[in-house]
Each structure stands twice: as structure tokens, then as C-alpha cells.
Amino acid sequence: MATTAPARHAFRTAATAPTPRRSLRPGLAAAIPAILAALIAPAFTPAPASAQTDPRVLEIIDEVDRLMRGESSAGVMRMEIDTEHWSRSLELRVWSLGTEHSLVRVESPPREAGMATLMVGGEVWNYLPNVDRTIKLPPSMMLGSWMESHFTNDDLVKESRLIEDYDIVISYEGPRAEEGGEEPGEGEAIWEFTLTPKPEAPVIWGRIVQEVRQSDRMPLVARYFDEDGTLVRTMRFSDFRVLGGRTLPTRMVMEPAEEEERTVVTYLELDFDVGLDAGFFSLRNLRARR
Amino acid sequence: MSGTGGARRRSGSRALGAGRGAGRTNDGVRDGTVRDASSGAAARAARKGSNRIWWRIAWRNLWRNRRRTVLTAAALSFGFVAAVLMIAFMDGMVEEMVSNGTRVLTGQVQIHADGYRPERSIHDTMGGREGIDVAGTVAAIQGVEGVGGVAPRVYGGGLVSSGDETAGAVLMGLDPAREEAVSRFGASLTEGRMPSGRGEIAIGAAMAGTIGAGLGDEVVLVAPAADGSTGNDLFAVTGIFRLGMGGYDDSYALLELATLQELMALDAGRIHEVAISVTRIGDSDAVAARVAEAVGGGEAGGLAIEPWSVFLEQLHFMTSMMGAANAIVALMIFGMAIFGVANTILLATFERRREFAVARALGSSGRAIVRIVLCEGLFLGLVSLAGGAAVAIPVVVFFHEFPLDLSAFVGTYEMVGSAMRPYLTAEYSWDGPLVSALALVGTGVASALYPAWRAVRIPPADALAGR
């Protein structure tokens, strides 16, 4: 399910898997809760405070933290992947608990239906219905793309842990209409957070710049730069509407900087407080066909 | 005219201005008549074959002092043998490096779609989306002169999983029978056999250790397919190979060509690479050109047909460096020889000052003197070459047939993906000895330049007077 480019011949998979900046911490948290986290809050989740990080940032994070703690959710999303060579659309059913547990199952297309990914803490398993086998993803594969999309296993996981690995400062504050006229935040007051990796952080980005709307604290755009300062890809958030009783960006577009490609994730359904506990996120449930 | 008499007469006439003048007049008259006769003969000789005379004079001069000439020629011969042998050994090392670097996996010539390298995208198959007539192309290449083996290949990236362990892998789809003439996978199997069809896979020994899979065990393969889907299937390990170098053992997984195509949703005509082995590594460039002629254009257009020097850049760089080092050492050998030989020829010309003076006095032109001395240098070079070749050829043949085993001093080592055995093998080549031979003869001539110039500058009168 999650596949990647092995080191020696550098085969490029459909997704642009960036090279690791430093060695990856073995075992990283789940990818999909991170999507949720990114949806619900601008990617800031509970973590120990850092002296380098702006106190106002921490305040915002605290607020998000209160919303997120112990949160369970269930939903349906559509993932549309456009590449140079093919386009496809996947429908996914997603369950999550906090940021440490999640389960994603492919509903369609038929060829992949039943494929599922379970993420618990730092570990990731994939279930392959064709051969009725579960494989555990090695840490070295975290940079591989998830279901051939432009999301990698790793970078989404990283969203949930940004505060641990990065120093975060508010690099701009106030109205800005830069991110193109299409952006809903045009001319609105925003915060621009700049995230730089902590000295020993096992991260792949040189810098992340994230814009958050001040009025409702909705994320607008996140730009990812490599360590040379080159833009690698951009994630845009849009279609802010009420889903499951909360206002969320229900559409996320991930675009690599180099190619004319994109992955669009749209939430179709989402419910909170669905009463899941950690036991739900088991290998047995990973295999269960619905 | 005797030298001592002439000198005496001249010293006598020096005191009397009138007598000197008269003597000069007489000499002039006498010289004039002689010159008329000699210049007529010289002109005739020049017309008929003066060159032969100069050659003969030079040749005789060369052997005037046999021992000196033999010693000088021996020095030059030794330099030639040293240069030829060194180049042969270097060529042997290069051959060994290139052979090891290309025979393991890559072959000496490869064909890809334009732009396949270096990204190696699964989509960049030969002939684009439509693919090519694989069997036809392979047959066409097989018929090209100098081609040893032809192997079509498909590549992909994926995961190989067994039990709880999963490893990333380079998936290689191949034709096991055809690979035998190109790569060493088949020969390096430590267990089992090459995959021959559906549900079969061969993996490297290191990977087998990593994922804990043995012969006959079931592994799961997951690979992104060309249509964006995720191919996955169960395979049985039918073979385990150990190439022992280049990291292949921990990253390569081999499948039968059509099986991998199916897993990755590629049509049968879509392959990424045709690897070609050549019968003589030195001919790689020429074979690549001939293959390009055979398959280029037509439906197979848009192909990059490259010899190993292109797709194994590092190896090529290494071997080029060794070639350059060769040239520098050869330059040093002959550079040193030039000065030694120049010294000898210079001595030889000084010994013959009077001779040159006579020739000058008899009307030889400066050019003729230069020609004689240069001819001597040329002959010296040729003689040395004959002697050097007589020694060098058997020595090179010997070390070609019986490589020098240095394993007592150094172990096998690996560089730029090419293992080297500690053997010094002399490799035959034409350009090495040819260049050395030219350098040798050039050295002979070059070392005669300065003596020749000195010989021309000998003032005839003073030399004849013993001054």
C-alpha cells in the first residue's frame, strides 16, 4: 500500500518523496490523524513547550489542544490524485482517536477496495485484501507515498508532531492578500508561522511556512521548503464549512512545486465523539472487511 | 690539405698583411674551381638521391662508436619496455575494472527511452506508452556484430515482506535465459534457481537475511503500478543470489519479466531497458553505434543507446584518469631519456667537429649537417625500438598469459561498484605501444636537435685549425 523508492536506483514513485534531512526517527505516528489534525487545527497539537517558540503560538496551540484531546472521529473522504500519467479517485473511510490512533480503509475503486492502513503510535501496518496479508511498514518507508498520492506516510505524521521538532515563530501578522485571489483569506488578517527544525530534530524539511486566518484560526496554506530554501510543495486549505458540528477546511490540495500534479482530499462526512476507544484500532479491525 | 700544415701557414701569414691578402686571393681562385666541380657533383647527387647518401652517412656515424651507441640504445629500449609494460598493466587493470563493473549487472551497452535515466520513472518505457516489439528488437540487436548477449528488463520499486519484516526493494523483471549472457545473477545463485514465471522471486542474500525469508518461503510483494494502483501478490522464493558487491544483495529482487509487468500494470511491450554485453569490452563504443544503426529510427525512435562509459560515468572517469596517469609517466620516461641521449649525441658530434668542418668547407649546407645529425637520432630511435620491441612483446605476452599474483600483498577491494582482484594482468592494446614507439623515435630525433644545432655552428676554419 505504502510504497517507496528504494535507495540504490532511486526509482521515483508517483509521489515526490523528498530525501530525508536527517535520519528518521524509527517509528512515527499515524498519517491520517495528522490530516485530521491539520484539518481541525493548523497542525498544532499537544506537545511540550519550547523556549524558542512564541508564547502566543503556544496559546493558540493550547486552545486547539483542548479541542483535540481524547477526540474520536469517523468520516468519509475522497482523495483525487492527478499525475502526469494517470488520474484516479479513491474513496476512503477514516476513523481516528486523538493523534495516536487511526484506521483508513479504501472503499473504492474495486481494485483497491478493502486495502487498509492502521496507525498506532509509531507503527504502521497495511492490509492487502488480494493476498489476505498484513505487512508492517519499515521506518525507512515512511517517505514513500501513501496510496500513490502526493502525501507521504511521513510528512502527514509530522504534522501532528510539528511542535516537538520545530521552533515556531510568528513571522508575519496582519492582513495579507498575497496567496492569490482565490484564497478565502484574501485581505484578511492572518498569522504567518515559520517553523524551523530544532537542531537535532529528525525532520526532512528545512522550513515550513504556514498561514492561519486570525478570525477563526483556520489554516489557509502551508508551504514546505527543503534545506536549500527551495519550495518543494504547497498545501492549501479551503471550503471552510460546518461538518460534524465544527467549522473546518473540508478540502485540502497538495501540490508538488516541480510537477503539474496534485492530490485533493475532500471530506464528505465527518462525525466527532463517535465513542471509539483504543481497542478499536487493532490488527483484527484492520483486516475486517466491512 | 693537412690541418697542422694549414695552421702553420695561416699563423705565418697572419704577420704579413699583403701575404695574407694574396693567399686569400689564391685560395679564392682555387676554391672557386673546386667548388664548381663539387657543386656540380652535389647538385647531381641531390637530384639523383642525395637523401640516400645522408642516410648512409648517418647510419655509419651511428656505428662509429659501437659500444656507446649500444648503451644509449639500450637505455632507450629499456624506457620503451617500461612504458609499454606499464601501459599494458594499466590497461589490464582498466579491463578488469570495466569487466567487473559491467559484467555483474549492467552490460556494456544499454538502451533506454530518452530521459529514462537518471530518474528511472516507471512510466518512461522504451517506445513510450505503446511500447516496442520486444522480441523483434532483441533479435535485431542479437544480430549486430560484436554483440554477445541481449537482455530486456523491467524495473520497479516496491516492498518485499515476510512475516513481520518488510524491506524496500528494486524489482527487476528479466528473462533468465537471456540474462546468462549479460549479468551474473544466474551464476551467483547460492540456493535455488532463477524465477521462471508467476509467483516466483529471487532475492539477494542480504535481503533474505533482513526479512528472514529462506528458499521456498512465501513473501508479499507490493509495488506501485503504472496506472496508479498498487500491485500486490504472493511469491515463493525460488532463488537466493549473492553478488557480493555493489549493494545488490540487499536491494534487488528478481522476477520473470512478464510477471513484473503484470504486477505493475505494464503491457507486454513496455520495458525499461535492454542490456547488451559485447564480445570485446574495448569495442563497446563501436557496438553501441552499430546497435543504434540497427534499432534507431522507425518505431524504436526516441531511444538512448549508450556504452558503459556513459551510464557508468564514475568508472569511465576512473579509467580515463588511469589513462592520463599513463601518459604522464610515459612522458617522464621519455623526457628523461631525451636529455641522456642528447648528451651522448652531443659528445659524438663534438668528436667529429673536424669532420663537420671539412664537410662545411667542402660546401655542405647547414641544412645537410642538421640532416645528418637528426638522421643519427632517428636511427638511434629505430634501433632502440627494434631492441625494445624484441624484449617488450614476449614480456607483455608472458604477463598476459600468467598474471602477476599480488594477493600475498593486497586483498580484493571494491571501488566505484567494481571489485578488483589483486592480479596484475597485461592487456594487449595497439595505441599504448604505438604511442610509446612514436615517443621513442621522437625522443631520438628530439635529442639530436641541440647537437645538430651545435654542429652547424662549428666554424669550419677554427675547427680545422684545431681551435
Quick one: which chains have the greatest interface? A-B, 40 and 34 residues
The residue-averaged pLDDT of chain A reads: 75
Which fold does the CATH topology of chain A refer to?
outer membrane lipoprotein receptor (LolB), chain A
**Fraction of helical residues of chain B:** 55-70%
Distance between the termini of chain B: 17 Å
Helix percent band of chain A: 10-25%
Largest sheet data of chain A: 13 strands, antiparallel
What does the overall shape of chain A look like?
globular
- What are the segments of chain A in which pLDDT stays under 50 over at least 5 consecutive residues? 1-51, 180-185
Strand content of chain A: 35-45%
Counted by DSSP, the helix tally of chain A is 5
Strand segment tally of chain B: 14
- Strand arrangement, major sheet of chain B: 2-3-8-5-7-6
* Tally of contiguous helical segments of chain B: 15
Radius of gyration of chain A: 18 Å
Radius of gyration of chain B, whole Å? 36 Å
Overall structural class of chain B, as computed from helix and strand content, comes to alpha+beta
Order of helices and strands of chain B: HHHEHEEHEEHEEHEHEHEHHHHEEEEHH
